[in-house]
Amino acid sequence: MRSITSVLFLMFLVFMALAPSSAYADERLWPKAPQPAATDNRSWPSVDWLKLKETWLAYLNYPSSENADKVSRQLPSQGHVKYTGATDEHDAVNFVYDNLGMLSRQIYSGDRSAVRLGFRLFSVSDAAFSEELDIILGSLIRINPRLFLLVLNENQWALKNNQGLLVNFGGDYVDRPNADELEISLRIAALRSVDDPSLAPLRDECLQLLKGMQQTR
Predict the structure, then answer these.
(1) How far is Cα 13 from Cα 11, in angstroms, rounded to an integer?
(2) Sign of the CA dihedral 156, 58, 88, 170?
(3) How many CB atoms within 10 Å of residue 72?
C-alpha cells in the first residue's frame, strides 16, 4: 500500500515539475480582482447657480428681451447639467421653476428672447420642470406658430429628445379625450398656416408627429 502511495506522490511531483507555469498564471483559472469603475470623461455643461438666480430675479423684476438674453447666457445652449445636489444648485433650480409665470406671459406676447430662454431652461430642468416648459412652449403653437418654429429651428435637439413639446397639454386635458383631440387638430391647423420655405421641413416634421399622435389617441 505504501509503495502505491509513494508512486502516486512521485507522479504528482513529476507532473508539477513538467507542467508549464503559465497554466497556473492563466487569468482564466483565477477570479479576477475587482476592477476600478470606468471614469466618466464626458464634459458636462456647468452653470454658475448664484449668477443664474441673480439674473432670473432681475428678469422677474424687469422682463425685457435684454434681461431674458442675460439669463440665457447663464445656461448651456444644449445638453443637460449634471446634478450634484449642491444647495446653490437646488435653490436656483427651484427658484426658477417656482416663478415661470412671468416668462410664460412674455412667451405668449411674442418675445423671441423669452421663447429662446424657455428652450434654454431645459438644460437645468428636472421631470416636472420639463413638463411645465413643454406646456408653456407648446401653447405658443396656436398663438404664434411661426415664432414657435423659428426658435425650435434653433433648438432642434429639443424635439428629437422630447416630443411632449408638441403634445403635452397639461392637467386640464387629462381624461378629456375630446378636448385632447380638438387641441391636436387646432395645433395642426396653426402649423399648416406657416408658409415660410425655410421652416417647411421642420413644420412638416411637427405635423407628422402630431398626426401620428392623433391616430393613436
Answers:
(1) 5
(2) negative
(3) 19
Phi, psi of 108 (to 5 degrees): -70, -25
Tell me what pLDDT residue 2 has. 45
Range list of H helices, the chain: 2-18, 22-25, 49-61, 65-72, 87-97, 101-108, 112-120, 127-143, 145-154, 156-161, 164-167, 177-192, 200-216
- Written as nine digits, the cell of 147 is 415664432
CA distance 173 to 190: 19
Q: Is the dihedral of CA 13, 15, 18, 24 positive or negative?
A: negative
Q: How high is the pLDDT of residue 161?
A: 77
* Residue 1: predicted pLDDT: 47
Structure pTM?
0.80
* Strand, coil or helix: 172: helix
CA–CA gap between residue 52 and residue 97 (Å, rounded): 12
Residue 26, pLDDT score: 34
> Which letter does DSSP use for residue 121 in this model?
G
Residue type, position 151, single letter: V
